[in-house]
């Protein structure tokens, strides 16, 4: 009751009085016998509570430097599952001796970890961190990073715990205001975007905001925010403002103040903080990834800027995802007075996911500037192991025999955790005593016995401790090891109830038994426990009542409450060892029931955050339910893709494919598409379909990058998918083959970037047309015909391209099919074929028919298309713009460009938005304005165009984009070259004219090399015909 109700109530009262009423308050909580009743006389009396513990609580309440809640030793002893830190003892009425005083740690502070009284060593490293923290607290300075490397068992986590305690103590003595937050990463975090900031954001957003601007006087103004912003934020955070009472309302407040990117609350509130009420609603566009990263850093900085130093401790960062590293980098580079402490396994064993350039800057620029420090911790010195033994045995170091220390050191290798376990085991089994030489050493009759130290290895020692536990505790640990490095009591209760087939009438008793079993594991030092973080609780419910989980019995009544607790393995060695004991079939069964339990608790897929989805995927995968795991992987990957998290999509798809890839072929066999022939032979229809879908999505995700190596990998993946379809027996059973159409579309996309694909364009398109025609869906058949027409156009077969378009017109209805085509292929490839056809008519000198198609695009297609899909809009009207311009209708060309591209892009995406055609926007707008000015339609010309064109960097475009955009009829660098040509004609300054001509020739030559027309071929002939006259005139004027 003390842990679960009394102390949380004290903390809640303390926090609520401060946040809602602005009342500074101090609470003293004690336990003891008291008199409770009426005191006084007949006419004057009162109801009172009297006794020594009452006096003590009043004394605690009045202590100086009060942290909010202080308790006595009786409370600490009753609250065994909570952590405390000691405060100076006090003298109180009714007590003979000084009374010990303690501060109960919050869930956040408990997450820092428990202090080990037997911790030794690492003094130099700890002094470095403490000195940095104290120095940074004295004045505003750039943020620092400290990296600690070490192998498993070296004591990295213990180092963080004890360093936090020491830093906190030193800062407290110097009357400094620190904010300290710690996160321990786990293995599955690499698949969860921004995983490390789940607990960190809760910590910093729950910090009491400062509403007195004077409190910042000594710190200056943060460069990220201006004075006007400060005034606004301080006024909105008055103590009477009830919106500051919860993490979510605080997040809302900051988002409004800083004008958060659209969709930010959905990602951070729902997916990061786990509040399903904040799941991302329908927005005009997905938020830009860089905006989200930068804004998360700003929220952290804004929420912590009142502190004089901020300690951000990140443990096991080898599991940290790439996006979390991006936010950490933003905080490191843009904040002040933040000390980031990272602990990791050796980088040679598990590479970090941080960006390569940031790692290089840390080890170069930032190390040279004394902003980055790193050190390696390995085995302890033998003298330090002796010191640890003395603390364990409660004696002086010199009282322990050398033989005893040598044996412990040899078997532990000097690794702190292993040495600690051996020493504790020896003490528990009473294997040592003070011998005749007055030295503590082995009991001679036990030293070499089965109970002695000479096990084969440390694992055997730990296994014996596990074997000594009762059957239910061992089973609970089995379930826990499968669930992960951390888990909740509720999860173990649910899973064990299902697997062990506990009857309804026995569930209450079983739940209590599981709780007792886990407590036994805690006492044994296998598990660690904390009361569930209050911030996990729904803000609409009482924190106190929701810190309990219900046990429902057969009659539907709630008979009992269990504390809502979160457990974790004290050290990864325990989990690894327990997992190694389990049969694979037993593990699969546990994973299956774990997934079922999560789905039962969260039945609505829309309310599941990324962490929950990834957990479900991992459990179904490890249960070897490939269909469910693949379905979750596709859903998660698609969600990541919509948010621009392409690397996370690739990771999840690759992880899912490993379900089939892990089965290796025999030495005499070759793989087919990367998979063993036996695996493909055994696939049923459902598994084959999911395998192909995963390969397709993986190929699309990899191919969407601009790197040639990734595009080649994408091509190989698509080819593997087709090969698997050809060789797998289950392929013949598939009736609906629509899922393979994106493969053809993806390979065609790569061919436009001149990526080598083993299939010829002709065969690829032929197969695609045949497959889609048999399927009968006009969306896919139309896409195949559009692809065919585009290929004919690119290769100069204009008549055939027009025939394909005529066939396409018979199946395509913009009203019916536009949204369906976009859903399958991201943009309306069928509508875009009209522009391709117009280009074909121009190449055949049939200008009248070309103009008819152009006005069909403008008057019939564009009004029916989604204006938010700006990429589709520009791809559809792009050929029309150049045909209009070349036929003296530049004003109409500019009008449709502004209406369907520039204005929607600025409205829905903003100036900093992105789309593949964006490199052409500036040059296209400039060229049309210049043409209209030279034709006398416009009287003024934007003077910035000349300045823009004089910078060659503005005119250059990556060759991949140059070629891809060029397939639509004109390349970006050909546009920029014409801008230079026309501006040179308008300039009276010889030097500027020469520079413009020089820049124009450079980009024109690059544009020519990208369209292949210069060698006499007809490939990208339309693009060649646009740039060649411009290039010739530039060369002529420059002579």
Automatic annotation (TrEMBL):
Highest taxon above the source species: Eukaryota
Keyword Ubl conjugation: no
Keywords: ATP-binding, Nucleotide-binding
GO molecular function, one term: adenylate cyclase activity
Any Pfam family: AAA_16
GO CC, one annotated term: cytoplasm
Name the UniProt record assigns to this protein: Guanylate cyclase domain-containing protein
């Amino acid at each position: 009751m003390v842990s679960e109700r009394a102390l949380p109530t004290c903390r809640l009262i303390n926090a609520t009085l401060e946040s809602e009423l602005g009342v500074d308050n101090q609470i003293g909580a004690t336990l003891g016998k008291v008199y409770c009743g009426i005191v006084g006389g007949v006419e004057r009396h009162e109801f009172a509570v009297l006794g020594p513990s009452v006096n003590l609580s009043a004394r605690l309440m009045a202590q100086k430097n009060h942290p909010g809640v202080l308790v006595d030793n009786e409370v600490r002893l009753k609250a065994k599952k909570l952590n405390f830190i000691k405060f100076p003892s006090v003298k109180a009425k009714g007590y003979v001796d000084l009374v010990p005083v303690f501060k109960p740690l919050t869930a956040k502070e408990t997450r820092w970890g428990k202090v080990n009284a037997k911790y030794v060593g690492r003094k130099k490293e700890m002094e470095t961190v403490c000195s940095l923290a104290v120095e940074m607290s004295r004045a505003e300075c750039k943020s620092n990073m400290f990296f600690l490397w070490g192998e498993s068992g070296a004591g990295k986590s213990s180092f963080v715990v004890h360093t936090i305690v020491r830093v906190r103590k030193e800062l407290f003595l110097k009357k400094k205001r620190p904010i300290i937050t710690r996160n321990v990463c786990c293995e599955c975090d690499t698949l969860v975007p921004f995983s490390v900031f789940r607990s960190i954001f809760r910590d910093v957003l729950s910090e009491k905001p400062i509403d007195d601007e004077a409190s910042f006087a000594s710190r200056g103004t943060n460069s990220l925010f201006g004075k006007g912003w400060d005034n606004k934020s301080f006024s909105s955070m008055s103590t009477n403002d009830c919106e500051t009472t919860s993490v979510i309302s605080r997040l809302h407040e900051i988002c409004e103040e800083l004008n958060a990117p659209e969709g930010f609350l959905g990602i951070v509130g729902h997916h990061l903080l786990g509040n399903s009420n904040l799941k991302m609603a329908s927005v005009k566009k997905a938020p830009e990834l860089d905006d989200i990263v930068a804004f998360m850093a700003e929220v952290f900085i804004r929420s912590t800027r009142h502190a004089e130093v901020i300690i951000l401790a990140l443990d096991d960062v080898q599991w940290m995802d790439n996006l979390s590293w991006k936010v950490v980098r933003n905080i490191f580079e843009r904040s002040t007075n933040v000390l980031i402490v990272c602990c990791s396994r050796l980088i040679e064993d598990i590479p970090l996911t941080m960006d390569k350039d940031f790692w290089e800057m840390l080890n170069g620029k930032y190390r040279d500037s004394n902003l980055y420090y790193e050190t390696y911790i390995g085995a302890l010195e033998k003298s330090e192991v002796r010191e640890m033994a003395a603390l364990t045995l409660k004696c002086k170091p010199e009282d322990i025999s050398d033989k005893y220390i040598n044996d412990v050191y040899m078997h532990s290798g000097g690794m702190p955790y292993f040495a600690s376990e051996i020493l504790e085991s020896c003490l528990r089994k009473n294997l040592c005593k003070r011998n005749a030489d007055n030295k503590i050493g082995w009991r001679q009759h036990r030293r070499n016995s089965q109970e002695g130290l000479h096990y084969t290895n440390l694992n055997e020692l730990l296994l014996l401790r596990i074997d000594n536990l009762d059957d239910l505790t061992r089973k609970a640990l089995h379930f826990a090891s499968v669930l992960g490095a951390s888990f909740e009591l509720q999860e173990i209760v649910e899973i064990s109830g299902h697997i062990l087939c506990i009857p309804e009438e026995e569930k209450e008793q079983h739940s209590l038994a599981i709780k007792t079993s886990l407590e036994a594991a805690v006492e044994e030092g296998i598990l660690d426990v904390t009361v569930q973080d209050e911030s996990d609780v729904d803000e609409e419910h009482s924190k106190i009542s929701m810190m309990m989980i219900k046990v429902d019995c057969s009659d539907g009544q709630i008979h009992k409450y269990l504390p809502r607790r979160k457990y974790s393995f004290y050290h990864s060695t325990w989990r690894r060892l327990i997992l190694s004991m389990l049969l694979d079939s037993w593990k699969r069964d546990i994973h299956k029931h774990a997934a079922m339990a999560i789905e039962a608790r969260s039945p609505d897929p829309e309310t599941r955050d990324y962490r929950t989805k990834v957990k479900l995927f991992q459990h179904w995968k490890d249960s070897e339910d490939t269909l469910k795991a693949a379905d979750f992987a596709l859903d998660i990957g698609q969600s990541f893709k919509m948010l621009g998290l392409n690397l996370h999509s690739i990771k999840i798809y690759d992880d899912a494919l490993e379900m089939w890839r892990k089965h290796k072929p025999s030495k005499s066999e070759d793989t087919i598409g990367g998979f063993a022939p036996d695996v493909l032979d055994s696939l049923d229809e459902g598994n084959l379909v999911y395998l192909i879908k995963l390969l397709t999505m993986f190929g699309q995700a990899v191919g969407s990058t601009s790197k040639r190596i990734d595009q080649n990998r994408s091509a190989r993946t698509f080819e593997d998918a087709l090969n698997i379809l050809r060789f797998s027996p289950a392929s013949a059973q598939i009736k609906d083959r629509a899922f393979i159409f994106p493969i053809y579309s993806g390979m065609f996309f790569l061919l436009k970037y001149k990526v080598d694909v083993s299939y010829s364009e002709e065969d690829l398109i032929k197969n695609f047309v045949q497959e889609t025609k048999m399927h009968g869906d006009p969306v896919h058949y139309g896409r195949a015909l559009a692809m065919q027409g585009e290929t004919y156009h690119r290769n100069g077969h204009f008549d055939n391209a027009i025939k394909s378009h005529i066939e396409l017109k018979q199946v395509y209805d913009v009203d019916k099919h536009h949204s369906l085509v976009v859903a399958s292929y991201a943009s309306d490839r069928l509508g875009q074929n009209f522009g391709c056809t117009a280009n074909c008519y121009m190449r055949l000198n049939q200008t009248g028919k070309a103009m008819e198609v152009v006005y069909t695009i403008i008057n019939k297609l564009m009004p029916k298309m989604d204006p938010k899909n700006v990429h589709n809009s520009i791809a559809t009207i792009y050929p029309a713009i150049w045909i209009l311009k070349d036929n003296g209708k530049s004003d109409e060309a500019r009008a449709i460009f502004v209406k369907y591209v520039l204005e929607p892009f600025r409205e829905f995406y903003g100036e900093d938005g992105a789309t593949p055609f964006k490199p052409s926007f500036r040059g296209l707008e400039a060229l049309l304005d210049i043409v209209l000015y030279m034709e006398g339609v416009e009287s003024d010309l934007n003077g910035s165009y000349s300045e823009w064109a004089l910078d060659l960097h503005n005119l250059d475009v990556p060759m991949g984009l140059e070629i891809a955009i060029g397939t639509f009829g004109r390349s970006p660098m050909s546009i920029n070259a014409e801008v230079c040509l026309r501006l040179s004609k308008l300039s009276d300054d010889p030097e500027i004219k020469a520079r413009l001509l020089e820049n124009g020739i450079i980009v024109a030559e690059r544009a020519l090399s990208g369209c292949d027309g210069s060698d006499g071929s007809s490939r990208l002939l339309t693009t060649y015909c646009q740039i060649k006259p411009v290039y010739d005139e530039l060369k002529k004027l420059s002579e």
